[in-house]
Design goal:
Layout lengths: L1 H24 L6 E8 L11 H10 L1 E5 L15 H10 L6 E4 L3 H7 L9 H7 L1 H9 L1 H7 L9 E2 L8 E6 H6 L8 H13 L11 E3 L5 H4 L19 E3 L2 E3 L5 H16 L13 H7 L3 E7 H5 L13 E4 L22 E4 L6 H10 L3 H9 L6 E4 L2 E4 L1 H4 L5 H6 L15 H4 L4 H13 L13 H26 L5 H14 L2 H16 L2
Parallel strand pairs: 1-2, 1-3, 6-9
Antiparallel strand pairs: 3-11, 4-11, 5-9, 5-10, 7-8, 12-13
The structure holds calcium ion.
């Protein structure tokens, strides 16, 4: 009798608390419709019937109505129509209540101060406790997304997890040639040379391609092996912060030394002769043909190639720690950036700014964050001991887990949300997790540049000089690596040309923006 009463009481309590919980997320009593422009390469337009959206609607009572214009419906990775869609939307003269897009940051930071978007700072302080808490805990992220007028105009997609790319090598080839895992740049060079000359794939032909990369800037990344830098962020060729100053990696001494050595590697055949042209299928082709020896690429997807051990006897392509430079430094330059220029903003004519910021805040609640990361409960995942765990049919499907999530409106990067690395960890294979542990132990990651927001005057200087400086840098870089010039002999002339083309002016506006934004 006592027990029965207790159980009844427990059931009653849990019903009440779950009802109270659902109430907690309700933003308005009567359903409120808000229009949305949404465009991202993975999601050409917003779909009102995504299961994640259906659940968010039921919880919040906010109904988003698709009003996307100018979306480029090409879904290949070369889709560059994203900013174009924003421009078309602006040209149409009607800005929806919510605008979500990839590369929205510069757009809202330019047009927000002119009134096209509503500044979010006060709205967050007064109506969005979860967002407020997030930014209080991560002031560097607040600084990074603020416009030149000090206001935030968008809520970003915030990636989780630190690790992105790593050095990978064929451990079975090292074994075949009785070589150790290289610890220094000299040892790495010796290993690549052995791959080139000692037939580790055993077919009697010198067909091995020692270093290859899907993206050619991953060759330039190797200047870090000589204390150079190739980028300050997860974007190729980006500026970097050194001793509190913005500099460009392609003007530094370590870069010169690195390019000199990479030209030598290229000439000796230690680097894929087609590195600048082979493109995105390089990894798939060179690994499955048993030709590729080493690369620098993403942990999870690259580790996945160990499935080739079914076809290639002993195949083992695993991460190794960044080789030490001649001065003894070991760095991994690439890491996940904590903040993307993607996300969403409130249109300047939105009549329900308070309800909208509350809706944005919903995605930063525990429930909303789970929905944004894992899909719908009971469909994509189940709660086990307080954790969202993907269902077996999701993990074991032929369709990659992320693609399954994109299809239901989860991991939607034109939405402002905080990713949960646990979503990815559940489908990272043992080789990726082992590699990440190795990099974690060595602490090879370095700080990164999170970008600046220009005033209109600074923007003009940047736009006037930077494109030609950048083009010149990239043109010289490729020429030197291919051996059609000598970086050492031409270095002074190169510096003179950078000065003439306005690099100093660009660095001046970068630094003034940087100091304003980060209080340097
Ligand atoms: Ca061979």
């Amino acid at each position: 009798m006592k027990l029965k009463a207790l159980v009844t009481a427990m059931v009653a309590t849990s019903v009440i608390s779950s009802m109270a919980l659902a109430e907690d997320y309700k933003i308005v009593d009567e359903p409120l419709e808000l229009t949305i422009q949404m465009n991202h390469k993975r999601y050409p337009v917003y779909e009102e019937d995504w299961p994640v959206e259906v659940e968010a609607r039921a919880l919040t009572n906010i109904h988003l109505i698709d009003a996307t214009v100018g979306a480029n419906i090409r879904t290949d990775s070369e889709n560059t129509g994203k900013t174009e869609a924003l421009n078309l939307m602006l040209a149409s003269g009607k800005i929806p209540d919510i605008v979500g897009s990839s590369r929205i940051k510069d757009f809202v930071n330019q047009y927000g101060p002119e009134g096209a978007f509503i500044p979010l700072n006060d709205l967050i302080d007064e109506h969005a406790p979860n967002l407020k808490k997030f930014f209080e805990e991560k002031p560097e992220i607040k600084a990074a997304i603020s416009a030149a007028d000090g206001n935030m105009y968008y809520i970003p997609y915030l990636p989780d997890g630190k690790y992105g790319r790593a050095f990978f090598i064929r451990y079975d080839w090292l074994d075949a040639l009785e070589l150790d895992v290289p610890e220094t740049v000299d040892e790495y060079e010796a290993v690549l040379r052995a791959f080139k000359t000692q037939d580790p794939n055993g077919n009697g032909v010198a067909d091995e391609v020692p270093y290859f990369a899907r993206q050619w800037p991953e060759l330039i990344r190797l200047v870090t092996l000589w204390d150079g830098r190739s980028s300050g962020s997860d974007t190729y060729h980006d500026f970097m912060v050194e001793d509190g100053e913005i500099k460009h990696p392609y003007a530094g001494e370590g870069y010169r030394e690195g390019i000199k050595n990479l030209a030598r590697w290229y000439e000796e055949g230690l680097v894929d002769a087609e590195i600048f042209t082979r493109g995105s299928s390089s990894r798939e082709f060179l690994l499955s043909e048993n030709l590729g020896g080493s690369t620098h690429d993403w942990f999870a997807s690259t580790s996945g190639y160990n499935r080739l051990s079914d076809q290639i006897d002993g195949f083992a392509f695993k991460a190794f720690a960044p080789p030490a430079s001649p001065s003894g430094k070991r760095i991994e330059e690439h890491r996940r950036i904590p903040i993307k220029p993607d996300g969403w903003a409130i249109g300047g004519t939105n009549k329900h700014a308070v309800e909208t910021i509350k809706y944005f805040d919903f995605w930063f609640t525990e429930k909303g964050r789970r929905l944004a990361n894992f899909g719908a409960e009971g469909v994509q995942y189940e709660m086990v001991d307080g954790q969202a765990i993907f269902k077996d049919e999701v993990l074991n499907s032929d369709e990659p887990v992320n693609n399954q999530l994109y299809a239901v409106g989860s991991q939607l990067q034109a939405r402002g949300y905080f990713q949960d690395y646990n979503y990815e960890k559940q489908w990272s294979n043992e080789f990726a997790l082992e590699g990440i542990a190795l990099y974690d132990e060595g602490d090879y990651l370095i700080d990164q540049f999170l970008g600046v927001a220009f005033t209109a005057d600074e923007q003009k200087v940047y736009d006037k000089f930077w494109p030609s400086v950048r083009d010149y840098m990239l043109e010289r870089q490729q020429t030197w690596v291919l051996g059609n010039g000598d970086v050492e002999a031409e270095w002074d002339d190169y510096q003179d040309q950078l000065a003439k083309k306005g690099l100093a002016d660009v660095l001046e506006v970068m630094n003034s923006a940087y100091k304003r934004q980060y209080g340097g």
